[in-house]
Amino acid sequence: MLLNVQNLNVMIPTQGGPLHAVQDVSFSVSKGETLCIVGESGCGKSVTALSLLGLLPKSAKRSASRMTFDGQDMITMSDKQIRALRGNRLSMIFQEPMTALNPLHTLGRQLTDVYMAHRRGNREAARQRAVYLLERVGIAKAAERLGQYPHELSGGLRQRVVIAMALMCEPELIVADEPTTALDVTIQAELLRLLAELQKSMGLGMIMITHDLGLVSRIADRVVVMYAGQVIENALAKELFENPKHPYTRALLGSVPDPSHPRMQPLPSIPGTVPSLVQKMEGCHFRDRCAFASEECRVPIPLVGVGAEHVARCIKTGAQAPNARSTAP
Amino acid sequence: MSKDAILSLSNVTHDFGGRRVITGRSPTIRAVEDVSFDVRKGDILGIVGESGSGKTTLAKIMLGLLPPTQGEVLLDGTPIIEMSRKRIAERIQFIFQDPYSSLNPRQSVGQIVGYPLYLRGQENAAERDRKARELLDIVGLSSRFFDAYPSQMSGGQRQRVAIARALITRPDLLICDEPTSALDVSVQSQVLNLLLELREEFGLTYVMVSHNMAVIQHMTTRVAVMFLGRIVEMDTSEKVFGTPQHPYTRLLLNSTLSVNQGAGVPDLNVDAEARHAMRDHPSYVSQRV
Amino acid sequence: MTDIVASTPPAQDRAARRMRRPRWMGHAGLIIGLAILLTCLLMALFAPLVAPHDPYAQDLLSRFAPPVWHEGGSWNHVLGADHLGRDYLSRLLYGAQISLIIGIGTAIVSGIIGTTIGIAAGYFGGKVDSIAMFFITARLAMPVILIALAVVALFGSSLTVVMLTLGLLLWDRFALVTRASTIQLRSQEFVTAAQIQGASTLQIVRHEILPNLLNNLLIVATLEMAQAIVLEAALSFLGLGVPAPLPSWGLMISEGKASILFEPWLITIPGIALFLLVLGTNLLGDGLRDITTPQGRN
């Protein structure tokens, strides 16, 4: 197992009080596996990613009962050790490529710098690797591109460079936070295909953070669904899409516009909005919006096994017909 | 121009740039090229395309905010550039993509919704407030929100406020620029459902600008596909989505990642050359329905 | 659909909590600044009621009477008396009036000029902006004290002349700040939304731009106020500010400088008052800036 996270909690102090952004989140990723963490804005998926990389704001408090990367304990690691890991064996790709690229340096400089920082190799070797990777991510005339600055490239090309940069040190795990949301649909599809291809051929572990269920269905091996700071369902992708158990997962799947819905007829939707994480909620976090909620949902709900390698945080999973794609309106 | 057309565009072209600078003229960029179509009463016309396709520029031209470089936009048979903003606002309203930027943070919800009436100055304050409350109720916000400020509301609720503001002058045509792309999936369907409901209730006509093929497919009666400023395909939704003709339309449809577990990411296999060929490919525009 | 309104939106909880414990409560600088400024304001407002003596009444017997904590001081003149035997506490209280009138007056005059120029430049851009920027640059190139001295020397010194002169010289920061904010606000979609509804330029400025500038304007106003108070004191010290016998703090320092060695309190007392007022105004400005700056999401 490449990465193993158990009972991760992140608390961020705010003006209004402590924000429990991540609550008891557990998951693991193996080599060659793509794990998708999916949820709506404010569900804690991005904070989870940042806490893996040691990039949380200074005021945030992180705790976990277990957090290992390739057997190494990440909880007790010093900042320096985390830095040595980050960008080296553990890489990241963010939504906005310009945040990862320095506008003042050439692409070549930035790509080789990452390599030199972790490998202490010579610059020529770094340059060769940069050219090789730029070609791998589908950039033509790679050697000439090394002298260019980020602003000379289109958004899609920039994100390709960022992917190449993430691969410079032959990482074992890539964390990608909405890497294609800012891009056009055709470019998104091309990049995702490229990313999936690289990941499989290099045997990388990948954590993909996204809100896009369509994207998840296409690339995930395993899916973690988060809602209001908690993992509410965790299953292999095939199992999750064929047999979703948690009412939220079902409702979310149902509300995606899809040719299977009758056109111009109301789509199933989830009433209400995501609850605030500032106060700690007792019981099921989804119960205010859930069509099946009852008094029994007011006590803390544990994740329970509902199938092979399939857990859900719901006590009503048995009460529903399987394959229901929508909740009551 | 057909009889029941609200808005009629003929040969509309828009260039950016071309201004005189010290060294001559700045280069022009053709954002919209030779676009003609009618928006007929009861239509939901989808305009779909990627960034840089000119769809937002076209929306602004249809609203009379940008004068076209060439061609003409007629609203009820009158050139829109000759009409006053207030006259246009009574017929056409606009929904912005980002409900965080489109509402003034210093105005209460009641003020925001009643503002178009205030500008017309025909009603007194009490009458304005009554109408604003009525509209808030119609879009599904209780009058509890009347005195709230936008910062206290979620994205979906803000978009409802924007819709209420757009409807208070009882327009016939609503132009929606990516109305749900800033919203979460579960909230997106709430807003789309609301738009469909309001269409029945007020007999509205919509123009929906979006890059999201699934939303356009679900919501529209007719679709125009834009690519590099031109309409490359235009027909009824059934036809465009059922039997797409233009290679760019097919590319857009192929790249849409609908929920389909195990299907993988499609191989689009388009390079710069193929894109260039798409540009020169003849367009398929059917003006009849 | 009704469920949407039944559940409290998260943002509203946050807002409600903020209401319970206002943000300014936790800001020490803001509270201290506000306290100093309020004290000054009360001093100025109630000077006629509080002052033990007429600030202009000369009493030659009390010349150079030391303050109460000095040897030979008495409660009759708590802060002593000056070279003409005028009660120093009374002069200090009335002096607060002058400092605040100058400060607030200058802030208002320069605020109106600077905001008008800044909004016009930011909203219209292009040529208007170029012209406005030329004026701002020209204004920044002017030495404030020298110009003020020249104007006062030409037109004679009075409270109004000093206030207007400073107002005409200190608008640059208002202009730069409003210009930058207006450029940013102009691209916001709510401004386009108002345009779509048919709002006139004046209506857009009044309803959409100005209310969103208010915080910034208030912050700049406090800074300009502090600067105007110091400049007035400097002009008065040079003998070209408000005319004697008005009890300006700068004038008091100037008049006391002759006896700095033997009666140092004549300088230190108005000096400390001036220092506190300017400090308080600046603390208030900084505090306002801190609490109105939106915090990052994390």
From TrEMBL, chain A:
Cellular component annotations (GO), alphabetically ordered: plasma membrane
Compartmental location: Cell inner membrane
UniProt KW keywords: ATP-binding, Cell membrane, Membrane, Nucleotide-binding, Transport
Any one GO molecular-function label of the UniProt entry: ATP hydrolysis activity
PROSITE patterns linked: ABC_TRANSPORTER_2 (PS50893)
Domain ABC transporter stretches: 3-253
BP GO terms, sorted: peptide transport; transmembrane transport
Mode of membrane association: Peripheral membrane protein
Keyword Cell membrane: yes
Gene3D superfamilies found in the cross-reference section: P-loop containing nucleotide triphosphate hydrolases
Pfam families the UniProt entry points to: ABC_tran (PF00005), oligo_HPY (PF08352)
Stored SUPFAM superfamilies: P-loop containing nucleoside triphosphate hydrolases (SSF52540)
NCBIfam families per UniProt: oligo_HPY (TIGR01727)
Family designation: Belongs to the ABC transporter superfamily.
Protein name: ABC transporter ATP-binding protein
Species of the source: Paracoccus alkanivorans
UniProtKB/TrEMBL annotation, chain B:
Record localization: Cell inner membrane
Family under the similarity heading: Belongs to the ABC transporter superfamily.
Recorded topology in the membrane: Peripheral membrane protein
Originating species: Paracoccus alkanivorans
CDD domains: ABC_NikE_OppD_transporters (cd03257)
Span of domain ABC transporter: 7-253
SUPFAM superfamilies: P-loop containing nucleoside triphosphate hydrolases
Database matches in Gene3D superfamilies: P-loop containing nucleotide triphosphate hydrolases (3.40.50.300)
This protein's GO CC annotations: plasma membrane
GO biological-process terms attached to the record: peptide transport; transmembrane transport
PROSITE patterns: ABC_TRANSPORTER_1, ABC_TRANSPORTER_2
Coiled-coil region: none
Transmembrane annotation, as ranges: none
Species lineage: Bacteria, Pseudomonadati, Pseudomonadota, Alphaproteobacteria, Rhodobacterales
InterPro entries reported for this sequence: AAA+_ATPase, ABC_transp_ATP-bind, ABC_transporter-like_ATP-bd, ABC_transporter-like_CS, Oligopep_ABC_C, P-loop_NTPase
GO molecular function, one term: ATP hydrolysis activity
Protein name: ABC transporter ATP-binding protein
Keywords noted in UniProt: ATP-binding, Nucleotide-binding, Transport
TrEMBL record, chain C:
Compartments, record wording: Cell membrane
Gene source species: Paracoccus alkanivorans
InterPro entries per the UniProt record, alphabetical: BP-dependent_transpt_permease, MetI-like, MetI-like_sf, OppC_N
Protein name (database record): ABC transporter permease
Superkingdom of the organism of origin: Bacteria
GO cellular component: plasma membrane
Pfam families: BPD_transp_1, OppC_N
Similarity comment text for this entry: Belongs to the binding-protein-dependent transport system permease family.
GO biological process, one term: transmembrane transport
Keywords on record: Cell membrane, Membrane, Peptide transport, Protein transport, Transmembrane, Transmembrane helix, Transport
Topology term for the membrane: Multi-pass membrane protein
Transmembrane segments: 24-51, 98-124, 144-171, 217-240, 260-279
Segments forming domain ABC transmembrane type-1: 96-285
